[in-house]
Amino acid sequence: MRDRRYAHPFRDLRAKLRQAASVCVLSGAGMSAESGIPTFRDAQTGLWANLDPMQLASEAGFRADPQRVWDWYQMRRDGVRQAEPNAGHVALARYAARHPGRLTILTQNVDDLHQRAAAQTGEGARIVALHGSILTDRWLDACPRGEDLMRRPCEPSRAEPGHPPRCPDCGNRLRPGVVWFGESLDYRDLTAAEEAASACDVMLVVGTSGAVWPAAGLAARARHAGAHVVILNTQVSEIDDEAHIVLTGSAATLLPRLLDPL
Ligand code: APR
Asked: What is the whole-number distance in angstroms between the Cα of residue 18 and the centre of ligand 1?
């Protein structure tokens, strides 16, 4: 545990979390690692350790080999559907249920596990899924119908089965509802995230390498706005310098210790 100024980091932090009017969590793949979902950049086990993200998580990669990308996401979706929220997700959901309106979760994860923990525990947190959801689809291209109201629009429900499914009228392809490299975040999500980061008293940065922007920049935004920034990670991250305190350990272990029963 690398604490810079605190003799009793947990006790001091719990006091801050008890008093805070607004708490923000920025979470990454490490948050779901103990639910059995691989991270991206962990050596050996991370998805990008053996796969090229530009081939599998970019529009160009999808257009180059739609079947490979679609099947890879189907495989990941199966893993996500079988996964369960871990003790870290549950601790956040319970804290939020006990303090409605206090917690905002800004997640880079596309696995819906924060949402599922909230649904199981009682809504309380506002959850912003910065990178979308792997369990949803959307059309690759804008519907060619455009202004031609005589033509039926592309409807996912009518998509012809395939790898990927296609619109029977125009051949438009379905793609996973996630944000790929080179794509912008939904501006409403990014605006909500920036507002929450600027308004929070405490930001917990959980299980992210801090390698991907603009999400990684939210920790600095919170710190510059006066929030107390705490990093929870099993290893050193690229944004440790933004933290007032770094707690080394796993999300499913540290979060219950920090939040139960605050
Ligand atoms: N508890 C806490 N932290 C953990 C755990 C754990 N059990 N296991 C791993 N970690 C940490 C790792 O040390 C690492 O710093 O989680 C981090 C995971 O980092 P990445 O794999 O880079 O994932 P993330 O930061 O979420 O990636 C950001 O990159 O590939 C894109 O769109 C994808 O949203 C993703 C974005």
From this structure: 27
